[in-house]
Amino acid sequence: MGGRVGFIGLGIMGAPMARHLLAAGFPLTVHSRSPGPVDALVEAGAGRASSPAELALTSDVVVTMLPDTPDVEHVMLGDDGVIAGAAAGSLVIDMSTIDPGPTRAIAAQLAARDVDMLDAPVSGGERGAIDGTLSIMVGGADEAFARATPVLQAMGKNIVHVGPSGAGQITKACNQLVVAATIETVAEALVLAERSGVDAAKVREALLGGLAGSKILEVHGQRMLDRAFEPGFRARLHRKDARIVLDAARAAGSPIPAFEVVAAQLDRLVDDADRGDLDHSALFTLLDGA
Amino acid sequence: MGGRVGFIGLGIMGAPMARHLLAAGFPLTVHSRSPGPVDALVEAGAGRASSPAELALTSDVVVTMLPDTPDVEHVMLGDDGVIAGAAAGSLVIDMSTIDPGPTRAIAAQLAARDVDMLDAPVSGGERGAIDGTLSIMVGGADEAFARATPVLQAMGKNIVHVGPSGAGQITKACNQLVVAATIETVAEALVLAERSGVDAAKVREALLGGLAGSKILEVHGQRMLDRAFEPGFRARLHRKDARIVLDAARAAGSPIPAFEVVAAQLDRLVDDADRGDLDHSALFTLLDGA
Questions:
Q1: Hey, which of A56, A91, B76, B275 would disulfide with A82, CB 3.0 to 4.6 Å?
Q2: Angle value at C-alpha B55, between B51 and B60, nearest 5 degrees
Q3: What whole-number distance in Å separates Cα of residue A287 and Cα of residue A183?
Q4: CATH no. of A5-164
Q5: Is B108 buried (19+), middle (13-18) or exposed (0-12) by CB count in 10 A?
Q6: B232 cis-preceded (ω within 30 degrees of 0)
Q7: Cross-chain Cβ contact B214/A182 below 8 Å
């Protein structure tokens, strides 16, 4: 396999990730809906492709970073999609956070054309994308993972091959389940402290060193104390991910009674309270203002 | 104030805590319902009192470590209770985990006799009690806290004075809220991984370093993977603490929508599944077996 990389989806996450690939010396072609980020990458040395199919024609590895499941389906399988241009033996790495079920279906369609696909969603947010320190959870075949590793290493640090196709998306869903539920839980505890007349900052401090300790209590607990809800990770994106969790749990027949309440709180925050552009730690505001 | 300490309640937690007081050189008198642990402490050098009142008569500081709210009310305020023997100017430290509301009421009754009371519940479990490394969350007046500090330091390490009377119990309630909810959440995520055909051990590993990371994911996540549910902290004790959380939230008018589900899961585990003597991480078994 050659080292020509194509990158589709130059959003807040994708643009800095693509820059890391350029900086690592990969010959890079890019494609995105908005022309601005494409122009910026072309100025930095990347080639431009007018469609996913054209990009795939000249790439050994195609990386996608897109908002949601329908976007990935369209870019991969639509007219002028990756599947129309990708050569047999090429590799696709989807780093979007999407539904595990459709992920496996897309991978199967690509496999029928002898194109390997990995699902490789990330955590670490815009900061991690800019710093090249994303955590990457990978699903797919061993051989494809081995081929992808140099590309992934240019963008992330903690790269775990979790299992077969879809396993990366399942892992990301588990991550988003735990993160949202822990935010809700920490918020419930800190509001209980405040409403009971106890200094919530001291409660956070007392809890941090023990069994109740978590990264969320540390980082988002402090945001709650400071009422500092500028994003960070927008609540509406976490709500999208919560739907992926609900779909995955339904598909697996796996009970998630506490998370169902958390998902409903995210719906309330985005739809009823219209706070979808605040940080996900703004779940606190639903309790604090109640 | 003299340094004579009385200790009431020589259970799994209380007995090793009392031993630390002896080892630290405090003249110690003990009282407990079961004669066995009293005999053992007397053999080690403690004096014996036949009632809480008698114990209080000869103690400058009375420490209590009892199962539940009614036990503390009875020992403090009943016939032959601490209140009947405690001298004006003496200090009571209740280290039990009980309701914040009744705690304040007991403290007020003792204050009317010029007896100070601190609520000082602990976390760290039997291991922490034996090692003298308990975390202690203290509510009460500054001056009482200062007097209590040498006594508390003999039993614990991370000693935080959170606020006025009841603040220690509120903090403990917040702790138990977060711990139980995080256990439930981690269980929901790991069962989702397993039912989706993904190696839950790899999911735990992938999540530990990031935002989803917590002490619970580390310790209880591993218990879940190993199906190692011998206690540890018994589910029936956490169910008792969940009721304290529910009471405290009701009293404060504080919403706890996700924790309500967690409390119901603890009820199911103890009452329906009859697994109250397993570790609280056995919340996992309700999902795993569903």
A1: A56
A2: 160
A3: 12
A4: 3.40.50.720
A5: exposed
A6: yes
A7: yes
* ipTM for the assembly: 0.95
Q: Tell me, yes or no, if A215 comes closer than 8 A to chain B by beta carbon.
A: yes
Beta-carbon pairs below 8 A across chains A and B: 256
Q: Is the minimum CB–CB distance between B100 and chain A shorter than 8 Å?
A: yes
Q: Is A219 on the interface with B (CB under 8 A)?
A: yes
pTM: 0.95
Chain A contact for B162 (CB, 8 A cutoff): yes
CA distance A210 to B123: 8
The pLDDT value given to residue B227: 98
pLDDT band of A290, cuts 50, 70, 90: low
Q: In angstroms, rounded to a whole number, what is the distance separating the alpha carbons of residues A176 and B192?
A: 12
Encoding tokens for residue B240? 């008792």
CA distance to partner chain B, nearest, from residue A202 (Å): 6
B172 is a catalytic site residue = yes
Q: Which residues of chain B have pLDDT under 70?
A: 1-2, 290
Closest CB from A195, A215, A290 relative to B211: A215
Instruction: Retrieve residue A72's tokens.
Output: 């990935």
pLDDT of residue A2 exceeding 80, the answer is no
Provide the residue type at A111 as one letter: A
Nearest to A14 by CA among A153, A128, A170: A128
From CA A21, how far away is CA A190, in angstroms rounded? 42
What distance in Å separates residue A96's CA from the closest CA in chain B? 17
Name which of B164, B217, B258 is nearest A261 (Cβ-Cβ): B258
What phi, psi does B5 have (nearest 5°)?
Answer: -110, 135
Distance of CA B76 to CAs A51, B55, B86, B201, Å?
78, 11, 10, 48
Domain ranges of chain A: 5-164, 170-288
CA angle centred on A57, ends A51 and A58, rounded to 5°: 105
Q: How far is B2 from B275, CA to CA, in rounded Å?
A: 46
d(CA A195, CA B205) in angstroms, rounded, equals 36
The pLDDT tens digits for A131-160 are 999 999 999 999 999 999 999 999 999 999
Q: A170-288 has which CATH code?
A: 1.10.1040.10
Percent of chain B with pLDDT over 90: 96
Beta-bridge mates of residue A159: A136
Closest C-alpha among B66, B76, B78 to residue B116:
B76
What is the arithmetic mean of pLDDT over A243-262?
98
Tell whether the model's pLDDT for residue A1 goes beyond 50: no
State the Cα–Cα distance between residues A53 and A117, nearest whole angstrom.
16
